[in-house]
Structure formats: structure tokens, C-alpha cells
Amino acid sequence: MINISTLDLNLLRTLDVLLSEHNVTRAAQRLNLSQPSISVQLARLREIFNDPLLLPGPRGMLPTARADELREPLRQALEALLSAVSPVSTFDPLKATQTWRIAATDYTESAIVLPALEGLRKAAPGTRLAVLEMNPKKLEKQAEQGEVDVIFHTRDGAPQALHQRLLFTERYVLAGRLNHPKLKRRPTRAQFCSLEHVIVSPDGGGFSAATDIALAKSGLSRRVVLSVPHFLFMLEVLARSDLVAVLPERLVKNTGALQVVAPPVDVPGFDILMLWHERLHRDPGHKWLRQHIVNSLSMMQ
């Protein structure tokens, strides 16, 4: 059994060249060493592997069966090691074949992933993108283990161990179907509270949100009649009923699909961050992806 901890890497490099050249003189020339030095190293290799490795022949040296077994695995191992310690290469998106994995909610899918997607397909057509369902309790572990590369998260509750970049600050608007009779102009607080509302409750079944907290400070309450888990369904409900919703502006900005006005109550907005693990912080491909996302959002300002 060979003790790899005491194995000289230079000996393996010499063996690789010898198995390629089958000639001590030519191997010495390639390695810029003297012929006696190569002979000494070959003797050491024979001792380590307990095999002659190369035998004298009529036209150079002939590899033994053990040497033939070593040649390809040794070449691959040395190439992998060289790749690992070589300077990081530049990233060419046109030649890239990565699969990127992004953790997002349905809101950040619409607000971030969708605006970035068209440009991503044009700039890096050989790549693939997997959008994964957000699991807040597992995000840090998923990032650490390489299961997700980029995460979109509100500032509240974002894992502090991950790198963070602020993408934007979101604000809330009041929305309903086009030509909604109660949204021709900004409603009063009393009118707002009398409307029937739908809210998104990611945890399921909730009937109170940030808007209700803001109203309670003024001694007011609204009529929340529907709670849904996803924004996509909420938008369908708004388009097909007289229900209204206070929702993030980017979900309805420039769509023209709904009637949008400012709510009569001041609902605090929220920051959206992009998160990633230290293991990807300096990776050229992932740096390019993160910057592409930032650029795609800046074009929407």
C-alpha cells in the first residue's frame, strides 16, 4: 500500500512524462532536468510502485502492464490538480454551460427572475436556470451544501452568514380589477376599510398583514374575506372579482391588467436582498450572474 502523504508530486509528474515519451532523454528535455536526475526519479518510482514500470526495448523503453494501468488515471489526476490550482479563468457567458439554482418566492419570481430571464437566455444561451421553492428554515444549509446558488429574501429574517446585496426597496399599492367602481380615485380610509380584501398568507390561513397593523394604530380595521398562499392566484382573483388587495408595486407595475392607486394608509415597505454563500463569492460565473440580475433590475427603474 502506497503512503500518499509521503509521495512527491514531482515524481508523479516525471512518471507522466516518461509514460508519454518512453525515453529518459526526451523526458529530461521536457522537464528541463538532467538525464541522471530522471534516472534517479525513475528508480524511486520503481521502488514506490514495486514495479519496473519501464523496461529497455529496441526503440526506447516499453511500459509494463502496471505502467499502462497508471497512464490514463495519472494524466487525469494531474490535469484535475492543475485545474484546481491554476488562476481563475475569465467567464464567457456565450460558452457557459452552468446550471444555476435560485431560491425564490412567487413574488420574487415575478419581480426579479422574470425581468432577468430574457437577457439571461440571450447572453448565456447554453446555461440552465432552476428556480426552487423557498424554504426559509433550510436556506443557509442549502447554500452551504451547494443546493442553491442565489437566494432572494426580505431583509427581515435573512441568514446573516450569507453575503447580501440590496436589490431594491419595495412599496405597497392598492389594486383591483380594471374599471373597479371604488378605485377610480384614491379611496378614503373609511371607503378602504369597507371594501372586501384578499391577502397573501405564505404560512397559510392568515387574515392579518402589515396593512392591518398600520390600520390598528389609527383604531381602524378592514374586511379581509379571502386568504391565499400565492400572489399569482391573488392576481387572478382581483381580475375576476370586486375584491381588492394591498400588494407589492412590482407585481402590477406597467402591466395595465389592474386598476392601481395609492392606499389611504401608510404601509411600510420592505427591502429585497440577494444572498449567496462565501464559496461562490469569487466565482467568475456566479459574479456574472449576480451582476446580470442587478443590471436587469436597473433597466426597470
Question: What features would you describe in this structure?
Answer:
Strands 4-3-5-12-6 form a five-stranded mixed beta sheet, covered by helices on one side. The chain has a three-stranded antiparallel beta sheet with strand order 10-7-11. Strands 1-2 form a two-stranded antiparallel ribbon. The longest helix has 21 residues, at 65-85. It has helices at 9-21, 24-31, 35-49, 65-85, 106-123, 139-144, 189-194, 210-216, 231-239, 284-298, and strands spanning 54-57, 60-63, 99-104, 128-133, 150-154, 163-170, 172-177, 196-200, 223-228, 245-248, 258-261, 270-276. The protein is α/β, with parallel strands linked by helices and 301 residues long. The mean pLDDT is 92.
Summarize the entry for a quick read:
The chain has 301 residues and is α/β, with parallel strands linked by helices.
Features:
301 residues; alpha/beta; three-stranded antiparallel β-sheet; 12 strands; single chain
List the helices and strands and how they pair.
Elements: H1 9-21, H2 24-31, H3 35-49, E1 54-57, E2 60-63, H4 65-85, E3 99-104, H5 106-123, E4 128-133, H6 139-144, E5 150-154, E6 163-170, E7 172-177, H7 189-194, E8 196-200, H8 210-216, E9 223-228, H9 231-239, E10 245-248, E11 258-261, E12 270-276, H10 284-298
Parallel strand pairs: 3-4, 3-5, 8-9
Antiparallel strand pairs: 1-2, 5-12, 6-12, 7-10, 7-11
Helix pairs in contact: 1-2, 1-3, 1-4, 2-3, 5-10
